[in-house]
Design goal:
Blueprint (H helix, E strand, L loop, with lengths): L16 H16 L12 H5 L3 H4 L1 H24 L1 H20 L4 H13 L3 H12 L2 H32 L4 H19 L14 H24 L4 H23 L7 H4 L2 H29 L12 H28 L1 H22 L4 H29 L5 H29 L1 E4 L4 E4 L1 H23 L11 H11 L1
Helix pairs in contact: 1-7, 1-8, 1-9, 4-5, 4-6, 4-7, 4-10, 4-17, 5-6, 5-7, 5-9, 7-8, 7-17, 8-14, 8-16, 10-11, 10-17, 13-14, 13-15, 13-16, 13-17, 13-18, 14-15, 14-16, 15-16, 15-18, 16-17, 17-18
Length: 488
Amino acid sequence: MNTTDSAPDRVRGTRNPVIIIVALGLSSLFVALMQSLVIPIQLELPELLGTTRSNASWVVTATLLGAAVAMPVSGRLADLLGKKPILVASALILLAGSLICALSDTLTPMLVGRVLQGLAMGYIPVAISFVREVAPVNMVNTAVASISAMLGVGGALGLPLAAWIAESLDWHALFWVSLGLAAAMTLMSLLVLPHVHDAHDGRLDVVGALGLTVGLVSFLVGVTKGNDWGWTDGVTLGLIVGGLVFLVLWGLFELRHDDPLVDLRTMARRPVLMTNLAAVLIGFGMMAQAIVIPQLLETPEITGYGLGQSILQAGLWMAPGGLMMLVFAPVSSKMLTTIGGRRTLALGAAVLSVGYVLAIFLTGAPWQLLIATCIGSAGVGIGYAAMPTLILENVPAEESGAGVGLNGLMRSVGTTVAGAVMAVVLTSKTMEIGPKATEIPTLGAYQLCFVIGAVAAAIGAALALLVYPLGTKKMTPAELQEKVTAEA
């Protein structure tokens, strides 16, 4: 559903829509920061938590798994119960997770807290779909673009912020800061967001939610841990293959369900399917950049190609890329209005691909990688703006939350696969340095990662062009508003 410039009756109150959108955007940024919160202390986690390196890696993986499960489930709950209650609940979950982590000194409570922080990521797709309920039609594209970009902005800005906090204060301060952000997010969600009559009849498909959780968690754990356990290890293969089989069975169950968690028939429509496939590849491209470039920046200069930056310095070099995603939000909005979502999505993926191509040759100095990163991030920002817009245009109003949530899940799958692929490439071509013969990736390994990222983004651009058949006319904002009003 949507609003017009004259505020519909089902929105109680007369709050300024700009204030509402700012609250949604800031809250989305706060929860997105959790992605990179522990990266600066990742190598120290085994000692800090009194555990093994393998076990400590779950502190990162737990948040990823929580986010993957939360996005489609939160979206469906928002369709059934209304979006504001789910936004408030997500903020409270982040508050609880941050408090548990801040008080933790051992692995188990830390994992519980990190899972909760991941579950709070369900806030973002619900916030995106909520925009169409509360914003005037002339502001919707810009608002959707800005909030969608927060997934990338939070990851990019979180790294230098977390590095600075970790270097200046006790590591628990990372989570006390996140607790403060969660408190602000909760207050904004409670006090600023309006009450909207947007609940729809139906019931939660509990079996479907559990099935999706089991399938996703099995598959993603296998992918994320494959490089540590070995890709031919029985456990790795069992989890990946078993997860995929379970997801197929889940899909068959959903097709037979009269009120499914995810309406797969709607998701199989060409515009939605192609948008989600492109989301996997653009998510892959965003994460590949976020993984590879900081490592190259931090590689010792003794290698002859390393740039010798500290974690904090590397984060600061990456931060402008995150800001670039936000800067391009109004540009993306204009593009969505003038050339349509299909071409905007294709252009974003193409720009991301160009950024990777440039990165192959711009490895001689941090400022050179900064240029490549900013270009690639601009492409991600454009693409991330177009995806939820295309989804919202092509799913029924009562499925908007679930549709945007599934698109968020597809991005998460792309980022997860990117992490696994980049780890394989970077560990397959190494050299030894120092008295301890430490193995680090060669320059060729980094450049191969850039090639893979460029190809993935280019394929994403091609898929985006298939969202609609060539020559299809995009609805104007007025026509879209008329359609949504009729559905309401």
